[in-house]
């Protein structure tokens, strides 16, 4: 166990250098919004490794296992909640783009100038605010839309930028392109909602499976045993505890990743 803890510490140090750019992102987070979210799994893995090593230094092998188990369970809960929050934010952003594109097409069809139409849309769909302000001062609208569209959830703005560019170059009617784009974005929104509803049961099943070991402990007490005492007081029990928690954590992460991949529309 001591050798394993040493290897974990070496791995943490080796992984820390590639993570250095992320520290600058976190420092600038209050001033500017990062265009890509920080990947949580490596960061949480580093935290689990450090907590495990700290437990080994303070209480030996038993402390390493218990602290590592607690850290792994906490990290999995944090990752699952954060992933759900990010997915919710992406869906809200995509809905906002679809609604704003539909409103923009209606305003242009009604005869509003492009700058005025963008300003009106930005009042109900804030994702258009940056592009509208950029266009109002004479900037390139397609470039501004493309920049916002690179953020997670706002990919539909890249299609709007391409639509705007084609209409400018060919002189074709903007409303026709925007109507087609808005229809496609609305269809994608409905499909995304349907897929999310279908995957909700699979996600919940995967999360519930992570709690099955607790059910096993309860059954052990019901038949007159003391499984917790065995798990924390013997070498074999510590190994069983570490392996069981590792498998449960891997199962939860795997099921979440499969659901995320199945829910991707692109």
UniProtKB/TrEMBL annotation:
Domain Type II secretion system protein GspF: 103-220
InterPro entries: T2SS_GspF_dom
Lineage top rank: taxon: Bacteria
Keywords: Cell membrane, Membrane, Transmembrane, Transmembrane helix
Spans traversing the lipid bilayer: 38-59, 208-224, 230-254
Gene Ontology CC terms, in alphabetical order: plasma membrane
Record's subcellular location: Cell membrane
Membrane topology listed for this record: Multi-pass membrane protein
PANTHER family on file: CONSERVED TRANSMEMBRANE PROTEIN-RELATED (PTHR35007:SF4), INTEGRAL MEMBRANE PROTEIN-RELATED (PTHR35007)
Name of the protein described by the UniProt record: Tight adherence protein B
């Amino acid at each position: 166990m001591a050798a394993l803890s040493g290897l974990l510490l070496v791995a943490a140090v080796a992984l820390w250098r590639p993570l250095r750019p992320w520290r600058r992102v976190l420092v600038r987070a209050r001033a500017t919004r990062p265009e890509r979210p920080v990947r949580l799994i490596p960061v949480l893995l580093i935290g689990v490794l450090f907590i495990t090593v700290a437990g080994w230094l303070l209480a030996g092998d038993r402390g390493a296992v218990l602290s590592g188990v607690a850290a792994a369970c906490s990290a999995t809960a944090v990752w699952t909640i954060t992933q759900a929050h990010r997915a919710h934010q992406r869906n809200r952003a995509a809905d906002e783009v679809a609604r704003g594109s539909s409103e923009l097409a209606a305003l242009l069809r009604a005869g509003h100038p492009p700058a005025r139409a963008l300003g009106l849309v930005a009042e109900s769909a804030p994702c258009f605010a940056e592009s509208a302000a950029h266009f109002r001062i004479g900037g390139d609208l397609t470039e501004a839309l493309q920049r916002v569209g690179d953020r997670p959830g706002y990919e539909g703005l890249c299609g709007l930028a391409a639509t705007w560019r084609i209409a400018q170059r060919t002189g074709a009617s903007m409303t026709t392109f925007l109507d087609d784009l808005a229809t496609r974005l609305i269809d994608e929104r409905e499909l995304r909602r349907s897929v999310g509803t279908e995957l909700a049961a699979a996600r919940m099943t995967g999360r519930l499976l992570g709690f099955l070991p607790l059910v096993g402990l309860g059954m052990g007490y019901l038949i007159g045993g003391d499984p917790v005492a065995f798990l924390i007081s013997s070498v074999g029990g510590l190994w069983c505890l570490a392996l069981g928690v590792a498998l449960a954590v891997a199962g939860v992460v795997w099921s979440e990743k499969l659901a995320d991949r199945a829910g991707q529309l692109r």
